Amino acid sequence: VEVKIEVVIPEKERSKEEMSPNGKASPLIYKVNGTARHYHLEEHPIASNPYHNPKDVVEASVCHVKDLENGQMREVDLGCGKALLIKEGGEFHAVGHKCPHYGAPLVKGVLSKGRVRCPWHGACFNIGTGDIEDFPGLDSLPRFQVKIEKEKVYIRASKQALQTQRRTKMMAKCISLSNYNLSSTNVLIIGAGAAGLVCAETLRQEGFSDRIVMCTMDRHLPYDRPKLSKSMDSHPEQITLRPKEFFCTYDIEVLTEMQVAAVDVKNKIAVFKDGFKMEYNKLLIATGNTPKALSCKGKEMENVFNIRTPEDANRVVKLATSKNVVIVGASFLGMEVAAYLAERAHSVSLVELEEVPFKKFFGERVGRAVMKMFENNRVKFYMQTEVSELREQEGKLKEVVLKSGKVLRADVCVVGVGAVPATGFLKQSGINIDSKGFIVVNKMMQTNIPGVFAAGDAVTFPLALRNNKKVNVPHWQMAHMHGRIAALNMLAHGTEISTVPYLWTAMFGKSIRYVGHGEGFDDVVIQGDLDELKFVAFYTKSDEVVAVASMNYDPIVSKVAEVLAAGRTIRKRDVENLSPPVVLLSFRTGDMSWLTGKGS
């Protein structure tokens, strides 16, 4: 039996295209606040109908139907590109083979109940439509049609789709934008990070056609913030999440270098620092956090940095090259910056109050293994001490003095000692803020004020994984999902958040992947070899596994994410008696029956 695969637009989207002879949808009506509004659906160029240009179509042989068992995936080559062929439930599906986020090979990911999860960072895609269902990333996969004819396999696909390996969902456009009052908007989004951008895009994807305004203190359009510490010499245009043309096409207005100073929730007005006022109907607060500063003498001098912008990161790299760098704080940011600068700087010293890096997050044993990796790469640690003074010479940093008495030579100092939620401007607003400054929201990302939503690093929300305990999860993936849930509930969908936290960190070409919420863990079960940096760490609380981290054991973290997302519980006893060969063999054979989880 052969399988034919050809690119198609999902039925729902295709039907919208076919509503008018010119390839665009006829005007539809969407009700917002009881008012009927018209909108036109348009599609990003990379998602255009491949059949409009027959020369763009390629056809190639793939495999025999018996070559794939249920639950198996295979990367197939069409000569000018590849597709991911999947068999599940006796049916074949085909989608793009690379994750649109960072290009991970999805064939090495996890297939479960109609979706494939990326092995690197946990993004999920529906195998029937290609639509993105969990994050990070913004785009979906191209979907290809599968046909079976005479026990032989053929694939028919658009060359363009095979080359781009991504598809942007259809979106509405704003109607009569020129008629709007500049000081009034239907949706105002404060903050232009992942949460804000995904909120705006989701509104347009759902057919919302009224005005959307995003405002940000940054000078740039939304960008890939994790790269500020992982790829520090990236320029703003290299890490922009969407080009300027995208925002123009879909009428998403972005006000840069604009800071909101106060919010009047009674009159639905945001007051900006420069005095400008903007009325809104729905509000999303996604301001993220503000890095903590040092409290010692000399903290304001030149060459002392918090990494907040691409310019900060670029400047640090330039100043640190062949110079002496001191990093204060063995946080994710501090450790990633240390790893990035280790080969570029003359010396890198890291100062930390704890005994080992990542102790509270990854545990002492994993922290020591990571610390050893850094020491093998010329990073010097000064643990269980703090900075008492920064000394200057001719106005520039010269030395960092520690409370232990040690004096470190320093041309550059990077501060990564934590952050606080950027919510100070809301203190008199009436919006519920907890004792730590976090905005309190429910499962629909709603605050206590009707029409006001919040998302991202600045919120606490009920985490289904931990019995709806209110938690703060400052992860890039979670910010994406917050933005989507907020948008859906602005449109009264009644959607509750249920995603599983997923994060990663990259250091010296190696990644630690992490899933779950391990706050308050009381034990760590480690399988593998910490010295070889090839391990799986199961974080437990009582008898339950609450989080899992791994290094060089892909895709176990993505597999665990699927188990937890299904509402199942992994017990401590399930993983305590495993030997490393069992874990390793499971990835070679695909048999992960030991990690099924028990009904919770």
Automatic annotation (TrEMBL):
<protein>
    <recommendedName>
        <fullName>Apoptosis-inducing factor 3</fullName>
    </recommendedName>
</protein>
<dbReference type="InterPro" id="IPR036922">
    <property type="entry name" value="Rieske_2Fe-2S_sf"/>
</dbReference>
<feature type="domain" description="Rieske">
    <location>
        <begin position="60"/>
        <end position="155"/>
    </location>
</feature>
<dbReference type="InterPro" id="IPR036188">
    <property type="entry name" value="FAD/NAD-bd_sf"/>
</dbReference>
<keyword id="KW-0496">Mitochondrion</keyword>
<dbReference type="GO" id="GO:0051537">
    <property type="term" value="F:2 iron, 2 sulfur cluster binding"/>
</dbReference>
<dbReference type="Pfam" id="PF07992">
    <property type="entry name" value="Pyr_redox_2"/>
</dbReference>
<dbReference type="GO" id="GO:0097194">
    <property type="term" value="P:execution phase of apoptosis"/>
</dbReference>
<keyword id="KW-0285">Flavoprotein</keyword>
<keyword id="KW-0411">Iron-sulfur</keyword>
<dbReference type="InterPro" id="IPR023753">
    <property type="entry name" value="FAD/NAD-binding_dom"/>
</dbReference>
<dbReference type="Pfam" id="PF00355">
    <property type="entry name" value="Rieske"/>
</dbReference>
<keyword id="KW-0249">Electron transport</keyword>
<dbReference type="InterPro" id="IPR028202">
    <property type="entry name" value="Reductase_C"/>
</dbReference>
<keyword id="KW-0560">Oxidoreductase</keyword>
<dbReference type="Pfam" id="PF14759">
    <property type="entry name" value="Reductase_C"/>
</dbReference>
<keyword id="KW-0053">Apoptosis</keyword>
<keyword id="KW-0001">2Fe-2S</keyword>
<comment type="similarity">
    <text>Belongs to the FAD-dependent oxidoreductase family.</text>
</comment>
<dbReference type="InterPro" id="IPR017941">
    <property type="entry name" value="Rieske_2Fe-2S"/>
</dbReference>
<dbReference type="InterPro" id="IPR050446">
    <property type="entry name" value="FAD-oxidoreductase/Apoptosis"/>
</dbReference>
<dbReference type="GO" id="GO:0016651">
    <property type="term" value="F:oxidoreductase activity, acting on NAD(P)H"/>
</dbReference>
<dbReference type="GO" id="GO:0005739">
    <property type="term" value="C:mitochondrion"/>
</dbReference>
<dbReference type="GO" id="GO:0046872">
    <property type="term" value="F:metal ion binding"/>
</dbReference>
<comment type="function">
    <text>Induces apoptosis through a caspase dependent pathway. Reduces mitochondrial membrane potential.</text>
</comment>
<keyword id="KW-0479">Metal-binding</keyword>
<keyword id="KW-0408">Iron</keyword>
<keyword id="KW-0274">FAD</keyword>
<dbReference type="InterPro" id="IPR016156">
    <property type="entry name" value="FAD/NAD-linked_Rdtase_dimer_sf"/>
</dbReference>
<keyword id="KW-0813">Transport</keyword>
